[in-house]
Amino acid sequence: MTGTNGVSNGTNGATGDRFDPDFTRHVIENIGPATPDRPRFVLSSLIKHLHDFIREVELTPEEWMTGVQFINSIGQISTAKRNEGQRICDVLGIESLVDEVANKFMLDSDENPTSSTILGPFWSPHAPFRELGDTIVQDPYPDGKVAYMHGVVTDAKTGEPIPNTIVDIWQASSNGQYDFQDDNQSVNNLRGKFRTNEKGEYYYYCYHPTAYSLPTDGPAGKLLKLLDRHPMRPAHIHLMVSADGYKSVTTQLFPRDDPYASTDTVFAVKDDLLLDFKPSTDPKAQLDLEYNISLARLKAGQPAPFLHTVF
Ligand code: BEZ
Ligand code: FE
């Protein structure tokens, strides 16, 4: 049965009539008149799906209480530097799916902008602006391999370069840790924002990225163990690219030969984000990475570039 806002409310799904057929509808209809349309729609659907899930798996009281304790443990271990809730979502593919939903429907079919993928918990709003040609390596790590990364940012429809685009970059060090996680790294190590020049170009030095494990000492680790999965992310460089009048893109770039590229534990890899690092002739770098970025124009009525909140 379909209720207001298109939310089906009160079916017993595959379990037929074994359970009270009116219960879910009753819970949804108790939402008060002051609840705005969008939260009413989202919460009605959430209640319906949760109730259907409980009926479908015939959730036991012990399983329900295990789930409650698990949710509590996510909150208890979270801090300003550790967003365990987001990590649980990542392990379950939720952040990747939300990203897909947010980005698919906004595009014209003839545009092919750079694919987005998840933000993850390590973006910082405080990364410093650096000059084109600078390095983001503040604290060299013994086995870090320096890469010269460069490319052009263009309009997805016209191919014209986009000057003054902000390319915000962050990556883990060669020990697999971000500055947030590692007391031996200075603040903003391996982070930087660059503005493209009049030809739409950006260029700078970074490290060839390193695969790393999600922390396994908390709820995400327990969940991965229960799911019999490894905790590894393939090596990657994060980018958040924004320009006036264009839809921002948040993405990650992966070495094509990374052993975890096909089993990323947070499901963020897309084929067009797999890249080849090449040997460099630049005396300051061992490797060369060319990556051109393409942005879709914002259409009338589309929201301004999304500013991420951090916890
Ligand atoms: C990351 O891309 O940095 C990341 C994403 C999800 C979970 C942990 C890390
Ligand atoms: Fe990362």
TrEMBL record:
Entry keywords, A to Z: Dioxygenase, Iron, Metal-binding, Oxidoreductase
Pfam name, any one: Dioxygenase_C
Keyword Iron among UniProt keywords: yes
InterPro entries noted in UniProt: Catechol_dOase_N (IPR007535), Intradiol_dOase_C (IPR000627), Intradiol_dOase_core (IPR015889), Intradiol_RC_Dioxygenase (IPR050770)
Domain Intradiol ring-cleavage dioxygenases: 119-295
Region of interest: Disordered: 1-21
Example GO BP: catechol-containing compound metabolic process
GO molecular function (one): ferric iron binding
Compositional bias annotation for Low complexity: 1-16
Record flagged with keyword NAD: no
Cofactor: Fe(3+)
Domain named Catechol dioxygenase N-terminal: residues: 38-104
Similarity field: Belongs to the intradiol ring-cleavage dioxygenase family.
PANTHER family in the cross-refs: DIOXYGENASE, PUTATIVE (AFU_ORTHOLOGUE AFUA_2G02910)-RELATED, INTRADIOL RING-CLEAVAGE DIOXYGENASE PRCA
Name of the protein in its database record: Catechol 1,2-dioxygenase
